[in-house]
C-alpha cells in the first residue's frame, strides 16, 4: 500500500508544469494629442497610450507656487525685515515720505522692482519646455 502511494507521489511530481506565457516582443509608448485614439496593438505587442494635454506629473496648481513665508530661509526673512524697518524709519535711500532723506531712494527702489520683474519673467520662461 505504501509503495503504491509512493509511486503515485513520484509520478505526480513529474507532470509537466503549466505553460507560462512569454513576455511581449514589443512595447510601444504613444503620446496622444487631444482627440486622438489609442492605436490597436499588432500581434504580440503592448501599446501604452498617454495624453499630451497634461504632459507633466506635477499638477498645474502646484508647478509655480511661490515659497510660503514659513518655508523661506532665515536669510530671506531677515533681509525682508531689514528692508521693512528701513522704509518705515525713513532712512536715506528708502523712498519713504517719512523721515529725512527718504526720497533719495525712489529710483533705486524702481530699479530693484524692475530687476525682480525681469528675474521672474526669466524664471517663468525657463520653466516652459
UniProtKB/TrEMBL annotation:
Q: Which UniProt keywords apply?
A: Signal
Its signal peptide is 1-18
Recorded protein name is Secreted protein
Q: What is the lineage of its organism?
A: Bacteria, Pseudomonadati, Pseudomonadota, Alphaproteobacteria, Sphingomonadales
Amino acid at each position: 500500500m505504501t509503495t503504491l502511494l509512493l509511486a503515485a507521489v513520484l509520478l505526480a511530481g513529474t507532470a509537466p508544469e503549466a505553460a507560462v506565457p512569454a513576455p511581449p516582443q514589443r512595447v510601444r509608448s504613444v503620446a496622444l494629442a487631444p482627440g486622438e485614439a489609442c492605436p490597436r496593438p499588432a500581434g504580440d505587442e503592448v501599446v501604452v497610450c498617454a495624453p499630451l494635454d497634461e504632459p507633466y506629473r506635477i499638477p498645474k496648481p502646484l508647478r509655480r507656487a511661490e515659497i510660503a513665508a514659513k518655508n523661506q530661509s532665515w536669510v530671506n526673512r531677515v533681509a525682508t525685515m531689514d528692508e521693512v524697518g528701513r522704509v518705515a524709519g525713513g532712512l536715506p535711500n528708502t523712498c519713504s515720505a517719512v523721515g529725512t532723506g527718504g526720497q533719495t531712494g525712489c529710483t533705486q527702489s524702481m530699479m530693484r522692482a524692475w530687476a525682480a520683474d525681469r528675474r521672474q519673467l526669466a524664471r517663468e520662461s525657463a520653466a516652459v519646455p
